[in-house]
Model the fold of this input.
Amino acid sequence: MFDVVRAPDLRMLAEVHEPHCLSVYLPTHTVGETIQDAVRLKNLLARAARELGTAGLSAVEVEALLAPATVLLADENFWAHQGRGLALFIAGGDIRTYRLPDPVAELVVVADRLHVKPLLPSVTSGEFFYVLALSQNRVRLLRGSRYAVNELALDEIPDSLAHALRFDDREPQLQSHAATRTGTGQVAPAFHGQGAGKDARDADADRFVAVVDAGVCQHLADSTAPLVLAGVTDLVARYRRLSKYAHIVDEAIAGNPELTSAAEFHDRAWPIISPLFDTARRAAHERVLSREVPTSTSVDEVVTAAHDGRVRSLFVQLGAHCWGRFDDERRDVEQHDARQPGDRDLLDVATLDTLLAGGRVFAVERQDLPVDEPLVAEFRY
Done:
């Protein structure tokens, strides 16, 4: 299981500014090895304590700052429901954790801002997709990457037609059909009898799809990630016709999805999705190589341009770091050969400002970069 990291989450994390912000990343296990994961976090918190001490905090202050994370070490339920990676952020007495769909390298960063670059494969629309498995008896929403798909908690999405139509078990002789919305915003179900005909069943199916889609659109707010539909042909066609989500892909996973595993969904969805990802990335890649647009591999220039909102697309190497500081008032970038207390990853700074200004970021392995540099930016002007 993992958490959806949306653009608003990234924006919120980017705006945090405290004297001592702690960012911790570690790989985790979806099943088994939970004790090992807790021990790994304990060791990383010990490293964080040393860095916080070096930054001038007393032992009492360090203990208080780390307390929200220390509590997690003995929380068996927390460790029993993990993804393949974990991000943990502490600032201003608050803690936020995100269970990630893909593994991340161990990392501890203490600075006056949170370090978010390892989240990028979970945030940028070019790195993930969704699958909506749709049947009248079971609804599932899954989020996937090139590596795997994982089922999400439905929250505001009904898990079946009966749930969507507020089926009342106390009146088994009735089936719900088209619902109306009250002045309070609550859905008030109407009912039809067992003898109802095709028109009533079609109305029920339309209402089911509409309620599911409203939940999906709320769940995927601000997302441009592609959505693959899985289900029998008529229900998929109905959803496609009525949905307000603008990024449903043309090809669907046909058949009854009720017993399909997450691994099977990934095997069938990835061949549909991968060409879409490759197209967007390849287009940006070719523009950079063509030199028909202004580009730069200078960290100083890219950080400043990203702050100004001039970066259209940014390729940044996963796992690479460039430590230093950026004074946005003086527009001064200072790079350090080795990480110093209070440093930020300047690649992270450029990434955040690019995303917040509506640019595209492609966080890729070194061999997938257009040039042999840890970052390259395509400018808007």
